[in-house]
Design goal:
The chain is α+β, with helices and mostly antiparallel strands. The protein contains 11 helices and 41 strands. The chain starts with 9 loop residues before the first strand and ends with a strand.
Amino acid sequence: MSVSSLEAQAKRIKLYEHFTQASCGPCATQNPAFSAIYNVNAFSMAHVAYHTSWPGVDPMNAANAPEVAAAVGLYGVMGVPNMIVDGVNVGSPTNVSQVSVDQAGISPVRIKVSDTDDSAGLHTVVVSVLQLGDVPTGSYIIRSMVVEKEIVYANPPGSNGEKDFPNVFRKFLGNGFSGEAYIPTGIGETVTFTYTYNVNGTVWAEDQMYPLVYIQETASKAVLQAGFEGTLNVEGSNVETETFQKGDKTNGNDFDFTMANIGEIDEIVTVSLTGTWPSDWSAHVKVNGLEYGDGDQINLLANSVTSGSLHVTVGQLPGIGDFQAGIISGASNALQQFAYIVISGVTDLIIVSDNKPATGNPDLFQPYEDGLVAVNESARGRVGSTLVLKGFQANVLDEVDHIYYSIGWTFPAMTDEMASYFQDFMDTGGNLMIAGQDAGWDMASGDVNANGTAFTKSLFTDYFSANFKADGGTANTQIKAVATDAVYGTSLPSGIKQSYGSANYYPDEMDAIAPEGYGFMTYQNNKNCAVRANHGSFKAVVLGIGLEMVNLQSVATGIMATTHDWFHGKLTDTEFDQAIEALKMGQNYPNPANEFTYVRLSAPSKEEMTLTIFDMMGRPVLNDVFAAGVTEQRVDVSTLTQGVYTYQLSNGKSFGSARQLTIVR
C-alpha cells in the first residue's frame, strides 16, 4: 500500500510523568501497582520518573535537581508519589489502570526516535514527527530527554527501602526544559529535530540510556503524542469512540480498530481475543470479510494500514461482555489490546474500583457478587469504574435500576464526573449503594488531604442523607445491626478485617440526616457506620467499610442480599409508615406560633413516639416525646428563631408525613 494509506492515524503513546523519591514511604507502597501495569505495556507507554528533592535523600535528584524542579513547577506538584498522564494530574500512581492503556486511542502525529552512538560516549538523537491528520489549534513545544531505563542499587539510596528504579530522568536535550517549538506543517509532511548528548563524565549506564520525546500544548498542558526509541513497527490502535455499547440482538455489535505496519517488511500478527461474557454470546475479529478467533494469524503488508473490528453476537442471557481484542506482534511478541464492553438486560450492576489500594489486595468484587447470587439475581453484571463512565457517557445504562459501587480503599473515592452521573441516575429513580473504607472521609470530610469537593459532599449529604463524623480507628472492630431497623435489623454481627494493614485502618463513622436517612448499623461502641436513605423516588445505602472487610462471609453476603431486596421492594418499612399515618397527625395550632404550639393525633399511639422539628435545610432542631396513649402534645418552641420549619412523627423506625410550622417573633 502507498505511504498515503498510513496518513489516517497513529497509535497514541500516552506520557506518564511520575514524580517520586527514594526516601518517600508512600512511594515504596504505591509505585509497585503502576510498575505491574508498565511492565506488560512498556511498548505502549512513555514513562519517565522525576526524583524530587524532598522529602529526604535521593542521589537521582542530586544528579539534575534544577530540571526536575522545572518539571515539578510546571504541574505544581506538592507531594509524592504523584502521576501526571498526558498533562493531567491523576494523583497516586495506583490510579493508572490497564483500561487507560487499552483505550489510548489515536494521535494526528507519529514520533519516531533514533539514537546513534557516534563514538566515545557521544550520541546523536534524531526525532522525526510525521503529521497524519489535523492537529488541534494551539501552541506546541517538543521536549526531548534522556532516560535511564533501570537503575539498581545494592543498598537502598534513600530511607524507603526501594532499590530498583525504572526510567529515571537524566536530562533534557536541546534547549533544555524550554524545549523547541513544534509547528505543524501539513498532512504527510515530516519535521525533524536533531540533538546530541554525551555519557562521558556521568554516572549513567550507557547501555541503559534511551531518548524519550513528547509534544505538549503550552496552555492546556495536553500531550499530543509521545515517542521513544524502540517503539513497535506494528501499531494497533483503538479507533472506536463508543467502547461501551448496548447489546444489539438483531445485528450484533461492532468495534473498529486498525493495524498499521510502518516497517519495511511484512509482519505476521496473532489475534488475541480474551474476556468474559454470557455463555450464549459469541465474538470474533473481522478483517477483510474474514473471521478470526483467538490465536489465529494475520499477515500485515509492509507500509500498510489494515482495518479490523470485533464483532459481538448477543444472546438471550442478560449480562455484560467484557472483551479484550488485540494483536500480538510476531517480531516482538508484544500484546496490544483494546477494551470493549457490551451490556444487555442487566438491572443490577456491580461497579468495582479500578484504582489499586496502596497496600493490601482484597477482592473488591466477590462479596457483592455472592449477595446477588444468594438472592438468585440473574440480571446482574460487573464493570470497572473507568469503563462505567463510558457507559454513562454513551447513555447505554438505561436498563440498570440498581447499582452497587465497591470503592474499597481507593482515592479519589468519588470524582465529580462520577458523582454527577450518580445524581442523574438517582434523579431518574435508580437505587445506589456505595461501600468503602475512607469513602465518606474522602467525599465529605473537607480534610485538606481529601479529594472531596462541594459536589461530592452534596452527593453524600443530600442523596445518601449522611453526615461524615470521624475517620474511625482501631477501636471500631465489629459491626452490628440496629435491632429496631425495619430493613437490616436482623443482620448478624461480625468482626472487621484489617484488609489494608493495621496502619491503614479507617472505618468511617457517620450520622443519618432525617427525615430520609436512617442509621442501620453501628460498630460495637455504638458509633454509626451505615446509613440508608429512602427518598421516595429512589433509595441509597452508604457503608463506612467495604464488604471485603467484613470478617464473616455470611454476614457480608447477607448485607448485600438485604440491600438487593430492599432496592427491589421485597423488604419495606411501609407497615411502620402506615402505623404512623393511621394516627393522622393534625396541623399544629396556633400556627404561626410564638412561645408554644399544640400538635394533635386522631388516635392514641400504642408506643412512645418522637416529634422532630426540622429547619428548611432538613436539619433536626428540636425533639419532643409523645408518650404512649397521648393524643395531644404542647410543644415549647421558644428556642426557635423566626422562620418556616417542618415537623414529623417517628417511632424510631420510620417517619410519618411532614407538616409545616411557622414561628414568628
